[in-house]
């Protein structure tokens, strides 16, 4: 991982308009057990689970939080222990438990299998494609979508086999795997939803890897979603430039710049792990709470169909769930879901500063209108670089208006002369314009 600034920055100013107009659409009207959400909160927020989390007790807690997606590795060696024989029993229990709780699954199809070797080569490549097809067929009536590998641009997950991560050989090997896997899965289940990419980091080197993939025909494959793990930036708002850069790469390669996108893994740790945002260490938990909510909202603004936080529980500083002692990030996520459930993004309201964010949400059922407002640091800067300040917005409402803080504190705010004065900080706040 490297926090180097990308060499170029691109921001598609019309991207939100394209999204809201329905240009980034997928699976609309498609038959099948699961489809991608339409952006209504919380239908597209998820959590990464690990092996220890595959139990009803944990899934009950995930459901209680209110998220609707989980991401979990479906490990090839654990399913195919004898050539051509697939044992789904452990995952069947997990899938059934998720389905009973209204949780959809991103199944990350990983990794090599000692029966065949690494799928960068034959015969493992064809064997992996058959395993993936067997998954797609077996879970064709369930709430599962499928991701081809995890971070294949890195040596950590693609393997140390004499080549460099983010290199052209890595890209060619992974593109060949996608070329073999997608047709096999679509033949087994034409309605399955397939994610490709799972690319680690958004920075100069990972952009090179994506360019290699696109040049080798990746965008001509009939997968459904490009997935990213946008580490390598300091704040969720840096995704604006990062995703814009990536979308331009897609367009330059002859593909659509509005390819459906999922952020299938990203968390902001409290310590110096990958993705650490920096800043005042005494405020690390507070910053993590800011970033969880802002990541979800920024991804929503940029058209991500699902955002999966890394992670529910673990040892790397990303954890949101602690038994008996919820993290601030957990509480902030709960407030987000409680306050915004049933709401859908309408637009970003123009402000004088590009790093100020005021998002307008509407509730089609109740007719409600809410604003979510915050400010962000300058591009690629740590959270302590945020400068709190006030802005004034014209509103068509009568006050006082109800407000809710990041952690659920209740308040009111007055309207004076048809305008609303909001004090912006790094912590998003919720303002009810109309109930």
Show the helix and strand layout.
Layout: H1 15-20, E1 45-48, H2 56-65, E2 69-75, H3 76-79, H4 89-100, E3 104-110, H5 124-138, E4 144-148, H6 155-158, H7 168-188, E5 194-200, H8 204-215, E6 225-229, H9 239-252, E7 261-266, H10 284-301, E8 304-309, H11 328-340, E9 344-348, E10 356-362, E11 369-375, E12 389-394, E13 401-404, E14 410-413, E15 415-416, E16 419-424, E17 429-434
Parallel strand pairs: 1-2, 1-8, 2-3, 3-4, 4-5, 5-6, 6-7, 7-8
Antiparallel strand pairs: 9-10, 10-11, 11-17, 12-16, 13-14, 13-17, 15-16
Would you write up a description of this structure?
The protein is built from 11 helices and 17 strands. The longest helix has 21 residues. It is globular. The N terminus is likely disordered.
The total tally of domains equals 2
Strand count: 17
Q: What is the CATH architecture annotation of the largest domain?
A: Alpha-Beta Barrel
Contiguous low-pLDDT stretches (5 residues minimum) are 1-32
CATH topology of the largest domain: TIM Barrel
Write down the secondary-structure element order: HEHEHHEHEHHEHEHEHEHEEEEEEEEE
**Cross-sheet strand order for the largest sheet:** 1-2-3-4-5-6-7-8
Helix content: 25-40%
Regarding CATH, which class of the largest domain?
Alpha Beta
Shape: globular
The pLDDT mean sits at 92
Rg, please? Answer: 21 Å
**What is the fourth-level CATH superfamily of the largest domain?**
Glycosidases
What distinguishing features does this structure have?
435 residues; alpha/beta; TIM Barrel; Immunoglobulin-like; 2 domains; eight-stranded parallel β-barrel; six-stranded antiparallel sheet; 17 strands; globular; disordered N terminus
């Amino acid at each position: 991982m490297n926090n180097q600034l990308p060499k170029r920055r691109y921001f598609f100013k019309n991207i939100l308009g394209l999204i809201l107009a329905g240009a980034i659409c997928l699976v609309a009207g498609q038959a099948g057990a699961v489809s991608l959400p339409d952006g209504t909160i919380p239908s597209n927020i998820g959590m990464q689970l690990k092996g220890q989390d595959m139990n009803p007790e944990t899934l009950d807690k995930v459901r209680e939080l209110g998220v609707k997606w989980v991401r979990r590795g479906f490990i090839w060696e654990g399913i195919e222990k004898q050539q051509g024989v697939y044992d789904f029993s452990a995952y069947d229990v997990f899938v059934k438990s998720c389905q009973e709780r209204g949780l959809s699954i991103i199944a990350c199809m990983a990794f090599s299998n000692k029966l065949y070797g690494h799928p960068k080569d034959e015969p493992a490549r064809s064997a992996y494609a058959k395993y993936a097809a067997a998954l797609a067929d077996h879970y064709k009536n369930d709430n599962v979508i499928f991701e081809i590998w995890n971070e294949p641009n890195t040596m950590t997950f693609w393997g140390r086999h004499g080549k460099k991560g983010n290199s052209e050989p890595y890209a060619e090997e992974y593109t060949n795997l996608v070329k073999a896997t997608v047709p096999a899965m679509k033949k087994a289940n034409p309605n399955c939803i397939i994610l490709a990419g799972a690319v680690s980091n958004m920075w100069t080197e990972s952009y090179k890897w994506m360019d290699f993939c696109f040049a080798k025909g990746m965008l001509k494959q009939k997968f459904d979603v490009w997935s990213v793990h946008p580490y390598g930036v300091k704040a969720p708002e840096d995704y604006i430039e990062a995703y814009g850069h990536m979308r331009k790469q897609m367009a330059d390669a002859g593909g659509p710049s509005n390819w459906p996108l999922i952020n299938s893994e990203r968390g902001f740790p409290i310590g110096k792990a990958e993705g650490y945002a920096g800043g005042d260490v005494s405020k690390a938990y507070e910053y993590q709470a800011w970033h969880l909510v802002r990541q979800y909202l920024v991804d929503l603004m940029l058209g991500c169909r699902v955002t999966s936080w890394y992670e529910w529980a673990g040892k790397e500083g990303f954890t949101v769930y602690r038994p008996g002692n919820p993290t601030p990030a957990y509480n902030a996520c709960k407030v987000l879901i409680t306050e915004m459930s049933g709401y859908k993004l309408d637009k970003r309201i123009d402000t004088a500063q590009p790093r100020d964010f005021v998002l307008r949400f509407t509730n089609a059922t109740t007719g409600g209108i809410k604003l979510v407002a915050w400010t962000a640091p300058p591009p690629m800067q740590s959270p302590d670089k945020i400068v709190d300040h006030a802005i004034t917005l014209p509103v068509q409402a009568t006050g006082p208006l109800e407000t809710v803080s990041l952690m659920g504190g209740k308040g009111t705010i007055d309207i004076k002369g048809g305008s609303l004065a909001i004090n912006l900080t790094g912590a998003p706040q919720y303002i009810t314009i109309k109930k």
